[in-house]
Batch of 4 targets.
Target 1
Amino acid sequence: MAVTSKNIPAPDLVPVRRALISVSDKTGLAEFAARLAAGGIELVSTGGTAAAIAAAGLAVTDISDVTGFPEIMDGRVKTLHPLVHGGLLAIRDDPQHTAAMEAHDIRPFDLVVINLYPFEEVRNAGSDYATTVENVDIGGPAMVRAAAKNHAYVAVLTEPADYGRVADALAGNDNCLPYRLRQELAAKAFARTAAYDAAISGWFAETLELDDPDWRAFGGRLGEAMRYGENPHQKAGFYRTGEKRAGVATARQVQGKQLSYNNLNDTDAAFELVGEFDPAESAAVAIIKHANPCGVARAATLSQAYGKALACDPVSAFGGIVALNRILDAEAAAEIVKTFTEVIIAPGADADACALIAEKKNLRLLLTDGLPDPRAAGLMVKSVAGGLLVQSRDDAVVEDLDLKAVTKRAPDARELADLKFAFKVAKHVKSNAIVYARDGATVGIGAGQMSRVDSARIAARKAEDAAAAAGAAEPLTRGAVVASDAFFPFADGLLTAVEAGATAVIQPGGSMRDEEVIAAADAHGIAMVFTGTRHFRH
């Protein structure tokens, strides 16, 4: 049996006779208010909301006529009053509460319709400090939380999307709302105010540059309920935070079947990687499988870049994700659809490319209208047992690093360009990461191994397999460069790269055995560059 906080049985059906409405977003307001009024429900409202209801030809009581006190301080103080909150919080079946209502002439509210000041929108628009603070709602969350706490008797709506559902429930229950619906609306209301406060506290931490605030809060809105998570027995949902970053959360899905949890995870990895490459300098393509790149390349055209990326590991590319840094054209689309692909993500696509993609009904096409900025600040969150690990986004970009040649031979211009390219890719490969690159394309990638030397061996072996598949005389690691996401703890990983044919190496440095590794490079005539910055990715 459902009970109130004072162990009083909660009624199943509660009649709605009086509604308090105060909304920032007035979408659907007139229609909803009209349905309430048609049911004989008294409407009480505030400021602009009351004016909008009156403009629709409906009778409405201004909140100041209820409280006997005018709105003051630019509307900051209008609903924070006992005649409002008493009407929201009173337990109707508690004799002490009802006596207090009678003694102080407090009338109950049965329905509360509130949506909050648009703080998230103002924040994301980059508004100034004063404007952002002014859009912190106070009275709204207070009323929402009060109504939600007293859901045994009060129903609370926090967005226009629920208007139709509530109006239909009223019509089907003789102007009453069932307990289960009131519970669901209360749960949603508390989640809404939690996400709202998370946005506010997050903005303060960002604005004041507080790296480690004592309390962290994160919030998001359900974008899509997923069929399952990483595996069919796991439940999952995709929640959007409101961050205006080009990527999977802001993309338009032009076609294809529903995206899965793994699709979204892999597509995010692919697009973040390809965002490292300036489209004004070259076309770039990344092919991702299980959140790791199996081929990345840049070239004059997307079609050429895709061909080079595919050649790195054509076997793993099957069923992968393809990300592009330029608007998808028909030439590139025609090449991509030759291999089974799960998702294509790009800043845009021309009509001819869309027509070609449309022939593959299940192929998802996501368009983002932009690229993620690899230098942009942001937070990464990972759950662990009993807590959250929070860190800043890895916004280090190789062009901004102080590269230092540490060997007798410095890399030549061609090698240096490939070293920078390979280090960009290594940033997005699961650790331990080893990336061989040549002529602006990956030619071997080793990812996620417990030993760095094993990653180097796997990358070389993959290059051999790709050469065999292409009928080449030797793997493209011959004359390639190699990038490591972290330092070589021993010379063995470097020597494996030398055996594979690498002529230059880029790595962070910082090992106790750096001198040993440098000596091994010098002994084989290898050029090596230290970046001073590590790119672990777990």
Target 2
Amino acid sequence: MTKPKIKKTVNPEDGLKYTVCGEFFPEVYPDIRSQKWGRGDEDPLTTEMRLFCACTRWAFNRILEGRFRKELKKEGQKLFGINSRFCDDAILKAKAVIESQRELLVLEVEETEKKLARARKKLDRAEKDLAIAIKTGNPVKIEKAERIVHGRKARVKKLKTKLDELKTHQNNGTIPTVVFGGRSLWKRVCRGRAAKEEWRQARQNRLFARSDETKGGNPNIKISYRNGDFSLSVTISHLSEQKGMDKKGRPVMTKAPRVTGKLWLPEKHRLKVWELLLSGAPYTVELIRGRDGRYRVHISFAITAPEPVTNPNRGYLGMDTNPDGVALANVHYFGQPEPWPEGFTVPHPKALHKFAGEFQVTVHPNGFLYIKIPELAYSRGYRRTYLIGVLAKVVVDIAKALGKPIALEDLDFGKDRLDTNKKFNRMAANFPFKKIIESVMRRASREGVGVKPVRPAHTSTIGYYKYMERYGVIIHHAAALVIARRAIGFRERITSELKQKIRVIKEKLNQRVNSLPGEGKGMTRKVKRLFNRLEGKIPVHNGLTRFKQESFYSVWHDLKQLALSSR
């Protein structure tokens, strides 16, 4: 007995994933309507999306109960009237939600444990301060300390309760409650700030179809190209009717009608999609109806990674990320800044044209430049995303022109670092670092430009003390140079020039002691302790391993505190 032939499918995660976003304009609808599955005056496409989303939620609950995909596939077709492939896609979407929630649960436990440990340390410090205030007998300080202790106890209790709930889910193999349609929207509905109908629409606004190479790319949602225009046709499977049974007892269905219409794609992606259709490669399509009634289309397919166009033997393009732009340093393989090539110009992006000075470039001939987009620091939503994409394109084009990979910082602004420090929370939330890095890395991977993340520890401090004055640049340029040197593999040694600079700072601080008195100025006890630590760390620094030289409490940490204290 021969084994049944398994259909060949292509997983979009294999290779390099490429996603194109467009818009669908339905024009031709089937004349018939289903009395069994339709509701009121809704069109067939809306009915199909509603049935698919309902099947996804049903499959989600059945999978949590321990049911298997094969039996759910047969049962789902009868319950929701959609074809076998749509039903299977709904089950896969439900499984993906469960798997992602389990992965997020592990991350959430780790983040909560870190926050709880930090909150307990803060509570211990607050209790010590309260004990000191009670000992001194100062009623104002006692009242303030008691208020702080009360708040931090509440914080510890809240985090402990949350951690216990998460660990219970982890131990039992369950996941936290999932709200289809959006938890934030549901909370707004409960508070009377949004209509329940809006939440219902958010729960039935998607249609997903997997790729299949054996069925011409995608059998349920097909893309076609004719006379210079793209079109999309969506299978309305609930309008298909049974016309008999085959020899194996399986139902034979009539051909399902389709909803067809124009597909708009951005100009920059049209050629890529056209090549996809010519090659006959599979593609995955997700159709999403927005609150405005417009249909967005996400087309995903796998492409082969391009040939690398950069060589690390030439050096690196160091990138230091800031809230209003990036600083770049063109660094030779020997670790020194290399002047820009003759005739080098920064590619200026088109289609900005919002205000003068929107895109500012300051080029230094010795291999440094700064790209500043002032609006990046305060713009919101799609505008910020667009500006970050423009910035990433310019940076990658520069690296491509130089033939050098990009070296950037591997900073962490994860949720576990967001705590009761309002100043840091605001900075981390407004700093679009993660989006800039992700955008640069995505763009670089598509263009064949190499990217090397490095440890971010003390790059600005090293640049401030060693390279800022030497090359006559700002601290961001010096930090970009340090990042590139770190990517190449250089260690940052304590030089005689740096030792002389520290001695000069010490002499200046000693001179301030004899001047007019001022609180926190001159050679304070804190600064004296810094110099004492430096005297022990500087002689042994050059002999340490690279990891120890870049550790948090290395000599650079004390030099940073010294720079802040001697301003």
Target 3
Amino acid sequence: MRAGLLAGREIALLDVREEDPHAQAHPLFAANFPYGRIEIDACTKLPRRDVPIVVLDDGEGLALPSALRLHQLGYTDVAILEGGITGWRDAGGELFRDVNVPSKSFGELVEHERHTPSLSAPEVKALIDKRENIVILDARRYDEYQTMSIPGSISVPGAELALRARELAPDPSTRIIVNCAGRTRSIIGTQSLINAGVPNPVSALRNGTIGWTLAQQELEHGQSRSYPPASDANRQTAARDARALADRAGVARIERAQLAALHADRTRTNYFFDVRSPGEYGAGHLPHFRSAPGGQLVQETEQFAPVRGARIVLADSDGVRANLTAHWLRQMNNDVYVVDGLRPEDFSVAGAWKDEVAPQPEVEEINVETLAQWLEQAPQQIAVLDFTSGVNYQKRHIPGAWFALRSQLAAALAQLPDGVQRYVLSCGSSLLARYAAADLRTLTKLPVLVLTGGTAAWLAAGKPVEMGATRLASPLIDRYRRPYEGTDNRAEAMQAYLDWEFGLVGQLGRDSTHGFHVV
């Protein structure tokens, strides 16, 4: 495994545990690929059926069934990492905590190598209070910005920064301050503007909203400030500078006419990403290109493109965002191409991207009205199992439904009360429930049914719902709680997260499989 990473060969190292255990310890390039979602994720994230795949767990017994399931889906080169997490550690491999660790480690390396300028939370607060000539740009996703933000800041997700900065700070003497929740996106955003030659002084908000909170300073909530359109003059300047950056980093180029042949090439794993905003993508995009806003693609590279050593192809409509994103991905030791010569008419495919999923097993279905009658007449005889995410389950679910993880299905059944005579499976749309039904049928002789249309159909019919963690047949481990999300994080957890980030450069040195370089 290590030799393959060092050689740069294509390889997908897949941690098939749920996200929380994955976040506790994993190899640097192990992408979280939960067993329960394999049929939904595999076709899009592993587009080449003969790509070398290595699956691992930490003794939970998920690696073998995951490998078998991938074989059933047509993948021909699947192996299990000997010893899993313990085997990697015992062989001298470095283990990392948290999620999106390759990107976060790279961000720390960028700051270490380039000495990216930053200001502390009290320093920025003082500038705000004195009404200094500053503008604060929030590089996170818009939904994160709306949850909590620095007072007066404007939402400008990462890849938009170089395209929009000159509109938001036309006076070169205006200080630009870039923030995120923690460190990575503010470091990368700040260094993006510096690399792109924006004339303003630029600094990161050191430690982001975490640092702001630890300084006991108030955040705003529910804000909607966003960036304006870019003028032609500023776009042309930004495009020229971004192209120079990409060329300096060694980004390859490809013409529109070459895309069809590249898409048909089955000798390499090819990922095609449109790095513009989701709204622009929905209005029109190139065939075969998925939406991956550039800032998030740099932040979550191993989730968008879990095959290490794959070819990554980027497109935009302005010559700024793709080149800027590509120059970072290339420094992260990815094989990156930017599509040149695109015209407005090339962005001809409207609507959202639809993932290809594995063929769905045949299931017996039940409609909303029948389920409602059964639950009213004999609720103790019906076990409704909800396979949605734990977050969505707590927001709303069918009254009486149990939260269940497909990866822990046998253990979940043991938590149910006696007297159950049939199982009804659901999730948001019942897509995941259909795959789980096939697993459940191997564990029980009772009838197994799937709710047609899932919980969404239940809601559309005006049926009542419950909220909260009311019935947990499985633990809420499908998502790792980030210390920088939400508004109720403990100070100790936030400080521990920052301390962990500070140590990532040292871990990269001990791991040495990454091939990162900073230009």
Target 4
Amino acid sequence: MTVLEGPAVPARHRGPRRALPPGLVMAAGTVVSRATGFVRSALLVAVLGSGPLADGYNVANTVPNLLFVLLIGGALNTALVPHLVRTARESADGGAAHVDRLVTVLVAALLVLTAVVVPGAPYVVRAYTSYGGGQLDRTVLLAYLCLPQVFFYGLFTVLGQLLNARRRFAPMAWAPVLNNLVVIGVFARYLGRRSFDDGDLLVLGAGTTAGVVAQALVLLPCLRAAGVRLRPRWDWRRAGLGEPLRAAGWTLLLVLTDQAGYWVVTRLSTSVGERAAAAGLPGVGYTAYSSAYLLWIVPHGVVTVSLVTAAVPALSAAADAPRAVRALLARTLRTVAVVTVPAACGFAVLAPQLCALAFGHGSTGSADVRAIAGMLTAFAPGLVLYSAGYALTRVFYALGDSRTPFLLNLLPVAATALGALLCHRLLPLRWAVTGMAGCYGGSFLLTVLAAAVLLRRRLGPLRVLGDHVVLLFAALPAAGAAWWTARYGLLPAAAVLAAGYLLLARLLRIEELSVLTARLGRR
């Protein structure tokens, strides 16, 4: 895998050289985290079932997880690293005093937020449910235990971004594994239990929060190993905190607009699901949409996020050298496309087999699997656009511009919402939500086009379209052969897809794939 490098970070922030490329370390952590997360989810269902108790637990755990997504995807994740890299480069003390002030104000804000949210647990539960009686009481109890996760998810984000700014990517990628293992251990003791009293709920709720606490606190010794000694500093005036806080505000608005688009799709797809069930059409509503999305997003989460996160410090350090930024971005886009282009083709032609393997168990029938597979096929082409748009918008953050990504994000949100409304009104019940999936993926074409135009003005021409076309010439014939082979099973089809793509890519001399396979072979 290509290691993206840029101007050096000051020596005090530079850790020892690692044997593994940062993107590979993060991708490995993401894979293990997702694997243990699947075990955790399966165990939760095995212990609590899928009835009212499980619903109450998931409602109680929804709000802190939602805030975690807001923090990771918005206010802190994208704004902190570029700012910290620039501060380290420009400050005489390597940015140590500035980091102390920034962490102090962020931790104080998280404490205030948590202090407001936790006492409001009953109102939070009522806002999300129509529960009453004992079900309401149990859910509120669990919410009181789970809502403190807000602080520890935020702390995890702040500490993790400090490490990422110093190019220590492994801790933040692997810490969620510890969280999953703690929760797995808590739930494992209740296997076979048929009833639960308040004491059991205390253990389950507190154990879930304990996993998040462990995920955050395990980063503290990693920071010390990286040479970071945090001290609270309260001299915030004239401390230069306005820039990162303004950036955090723009990115928070970005994620909130994302949630607005997501809300439209959720409301409309659940409406379709209710009407479809009444008409005898199973599995064509929101559950099928979200299940297909979970499969579709895996290559992006494992590859794109890992590579782009590893590239952001180098892009930030090279912000004053447009040619260097352009070269780093082009290399990142090509390396991401090496994986996302064949993955999109694979989803398109092997969706029925993949969905049967992942979801064709228990009460899920063949009609449900077909519905999920149709939505995965509709999502598939958008994977390349979604990942490319993600990489392009992160360059603006590296350049210290958080306003432009917010404005760019309005395009796919508006297109997704409008497309969902049209699909809801115009398409038959069987295909309405499938159309919404296609609109969501396709909407990111607007992001890619607009971001490319704006970056061209700042950095000069980006010649990456030709690379994507070449990758399609390698992936499409392999996908066609895989589709024909799928009658013999998923494994032979996947093998044909991989072998055919690798062979054609080698014949077409795709450099990034050669580097990737060579490095993986050595590792």
